[in-house]
Specification:
single chain, mainly alpha, 13 helices, about 80% helix, about 0% strand, elongated
């Protein structure tokens, strides 16, 4: 019991150092805790996280493997292994471990998002799409899936669905400031609505981009100029049609009078 209590105290101390980003000190206290109890599951898993922060992938893998050997249902260790192999740019290995984590925690959107990222890097867009949909249905707290779904639907040629998810992304992130993802969403929506003839919506989205600097602002200006040109052309065409109709009516009236 004494060893367990001392180990717990060391893990609490490690969490303190981890929060202060003093990862080397955190690892030191984990090692001390493990000397007292080699089967201390949380110590192995959390030490893996610390090694990952230090970019010591070999040590992280060893720590995570110790954790899953002790408890194969520790989803955090499986997820950590997935992250480690993703850092090593080994997506097939990462996908294997993310699948393990997802099987244990299927209601966690982060697991599905991680799997989707691997499928995307492998060029498997359909499976990436399915995983992002699962992430979205499981309350993806960071709203990553909405933006990714919009991009994937655009890549797959379904711009209507892409627009729907970009709109959801903007609604979900409203009040958080306009990040690069939101700027990209506004630009896509402005272009999309212009293309389908919904000029009022296109103008509204493009106008929001005028508050930013950079190429997106210039693209928004170009879209607005095109919209106004189209509107002026339509207004001119309507006026010409109205004039032509008035002339035709006048000619008809004159011909009628001549006949009488």
């Amino acid at each position: 019991i004494s060893a367990c209590l001392v180990g717990s105290e060391m893990c609490i101390r490690d969490s303190y150092y981890s929060l202060k980003s003093e990862h080397e000190k955190a690892v030191l206290y984990f090692k001390r805790a493990l000397k007292l109890n080699r089967r201390y599951l949380s110590a192995w898993t959390l030490m893996g996280h610390e090694y990952l922060e230090m970019k010591n992938t070999a040590a992280a893998i060893e720590a995570y493997r110790k954790a899953v050997d002790i408890n194969p249902r520790d989803y955090r260790a499986w997820y950590g292994l997935g992250q480690t192999y993703e850092i090593l740019t080994m997506p097939l290995y990462a996908l294997y471990y993310y699948r393990k984590a997802t099987a244990l925690r299927p209601y966690d959107g982060r697991m599905w998002t991680a799997m989707a990222g691997c499928y995307k890097s492998l060029g498997n867009l359909q499976d990436a799409l399915k995983c992002y949909l699962r992430a979205n249905s499981n309350k993806d707290r960071e709203a990553v899936s909405l933006n990714e779904l919009a991009q994937l639907y655009h890549q797959l040629g379904n711009d209507d669905k892409a627009a729907a998810y970009y709109q959801k992304h903007l609604a979900e992130t409203e009040g958080e400031g306009e990040g690069q993802d939101s700027i990209a969403a506004l630009l896509f929506l402005a272009q999309h609505h212009k293309n389908i003839g919904n000029l009022r919506m296109a103008e509204a989205y493009a106008s929001r981009l005028l508050d930013f600097s950079g190429k997106e602002k210039e693209e928004a200006k170009a879209i607005l100029r095109e919209i106004h040109s189209t509107q002026n052309y339509k207004a001119g065409s309507s006026l010409n049609v109205s004039i032509d109709m008035s002339i035709d009516k006048s000619v008809s009236d004159i011909e009628l009078d001549d006949n009488n």
